Amino acid sequence: MVFHRTPHPRTRALGPSGRPDTPSGRPDRPWAAVGMLAAATFAVVTTEMLPVGLLTSLGAGLDVSAGTAGLAVTLPGLVAAVAAPLLPVAVRGTDRRTVLCALLLLLAAANLLTALAPAFPVVLAARLLVGMCMGGVWAVAAGLGARLLPGPSAGRATALVFSGIAVASVLGVPAGTFLGAAAGWRTAFAAMTGCALLVAAGLAVVLPPLPAEGAVRLGTFPRLLGATRVRWLLVTIALLVTGHFAAYTYVRPVLERTPGTGPGLVGTLLLGYGLAGVAGNFAGGALAARRPRRALRLLAAVLGAVVLLLAPAGGSALASAALLAAWGLAYGGVSVSGQRALTVAAPEAPEAASALFAGVFNAAIALGALAGGRLADGPGPTAALLAGGVLAGLAALTPGRDEQGAATSP
């Protein structure tokens, strides 16, 4: 007779990683895992935007004009827009923990290549890799917060993942700019190499195994786009993000025309905008927990109104400061609300929806900055503000509704 020993109820089998297996890829410390995903978004966005604060020194160091050096900002965004929907197709059934670790290691290599670049074409090659990492991390990580913490905590988990974007703008890029001014632009990129390596190690330790929940195929995207609710959500996001970047990219010249504001005060106003964005990220997550589509339209309406009011309020520093803080609060909730709305609209293909979201978002960033630049060089920065406000207002008027967090059927 063979006796089978029943395991103690508190004992769990060890998985391949040497850690206890958990159902559905749930980690023992889910909030720590979500926090590491936020660190990943922080690393890629800081790397993406770091050249903004280092354009002058980078251009001088590699003997190119500031305009040419600006390609280091434009190229990653364009590549990310293409990589976001294609990378999930390429990795198919690969464990998502492995994919994220590989992307962070690639990001570290891209930063190191930038730090050692002997000429500007090498920098552009490195920034192409950065764009691939951006698109991949956005597409894969954006929907994992809800997977690690499903149910009532999904909204807060998604907000924490996207908080890395806001913190990168408020802390990451200014810190990198300060380091570049003190020790040279190459040192700033070398520091980001170390940051990416640390995040890769943290992801490997904290994340549980995350098997792909259904391989993403190219045919998945046309099926998703065939749903009316998904199409209108993507249109809403495209209008809102294009409008935001058309206006925000060139808001500094508008603020500098305000009586009584110098470079120091303008910097303080933009810091206030960034801090409001961090708060808006978490407020947007809470707002989007039940009715994400309604939350997204509300944020678009507030953002559009604030941007339109900023032009006539240019005569008052106090009014400009209040409107800029409201702008940051509204835009801070856009990423998490948009991601949550698409997840609810396409529950059968969350990663493919995240990939479409990341692709549209990054394309809208590039389009908004381009359109704003044309207007700023023509009619002037105020025209860029007005155009951005109108586009955001149109985003608030797009059709679609949701009830108790569930989108309507197409």
TrEMBL record:
Residues 1-28 are annotated as: Disordered. It is a multi-pass membrane protein. Gene3D superfamilies: MFS general substrate transporter like domains. Residues 1-11 have a biased composition (Basic residues). It holds the Pfam family MFS_1. Residues 33-405 form the Major facilitator superfamily (MFS) profile domain. The keyword Membrane applies. Keywords: Cell membrane, Membrane, Transmembrane, Transmembrane helix. The chain crosses the membrane at residues 31-54, 66-87, 99-120, 126-146, 158-182, 188-210, 230-250, 270-289, 301-332, 352-371, 383-400. It is found in: Cell membrane. InterPro entries: MFS, MFS_dom, MFS_Efflux_Transporters, MFS_trans_sf. Signal peptide: none annotated. Its main location: membrane. This is MFS transporter. It comes from Streptomyces nogalater.
